[in-house]
Design goal:
The chain is α/β, with parallel strands linked by helices and about 190 residues long. It contains six helices and five strands. Strand 1, helix 1 and strand 2 form a beta-alpha-beta unit.
């Protein structure tokens, strides 16, 4: 059975173990082994910095054991995906692993950045030179997140699912995640 690293911001949720267990159970249902970032034993370290490094290296070790990465790219604490998840996805791509993703938000990246970093109503335009309040260009390709994220996924596995989920359930609804598993099962079974 192929092993899947389950990247995403779920480790920050009030009950990360429950969502991790639910994702791993779905992986098993589709013939995969899921590895959640909390599936490692981190011993207490002398400092917060050393603890952070142990967690980081532990997650990298889990990625190195994996055959595939699925990343939850639902926007987290801003207009884009969780920064740690983005790193893990990039590491997987660098290791030439198949990477797949999903988001429980269908609002295009441009619109989310505009809502966060600009003023007024977003322009309806194909213009690639729309600027934020600081004068910086806003990426405007109609994608779900930064072009490097979606581009890497499309070049790797071409498995990306986006759906609209309201409120806090956007981090616990696993419908899009399950659709990714179905597509990966069809490819790798």
């Amino acid at each position: 059975m192929k092993t899947i690293y389950l990247a995403g911001p779920e480790v920050f949720l009030p009950d990360p173990t429950a969502i991790g267990d639910a994702k791993k159970a779905l992986c098993e249902q589709y013939g995969f082994i899921g590895l959640f970032p909390l599936d490692k034993d981190i011993k207490p370290q002398p400092s917060r910095f050393e603890t952070a490094m142990a967690i980081s290296l532990g997650n990298e070790a889990l990625i190195m054991r994996s055959d595939i990465i699925i990343a939850n790219l639902t926007p987290f604490r801003g207009p884009s995906a969780d920064a740690g998840t983005i790193y893990e996805l990039g590491m997987g791509r660098g290791l030439n692993l198949p990477i797949a993703g999903y988001s429980n938000c269908v609002t295009p990246y441009f619109d989310r950045v505009w809502q966060t970093c600009a003023d007024g109503e977003a322009p309806i335009t194909e213009d690639k030179d729309v600027r934020d309040l600081d004068g910086n260009s806003i990426e405007n390709f109609g994608l779900m997140d930064n072009l490097m994220l979606q581009g890497g996924i499309l070049a790797s596995s071409d498995v990306f699912v986006a759906r609209h989920v309201e409120g806090l359930e956007r981090f616990t609804d696993l419908t899009a995640f399950e659709e990714v598993l179905k597509q990966l099962k069809a490819r790798y079974s």
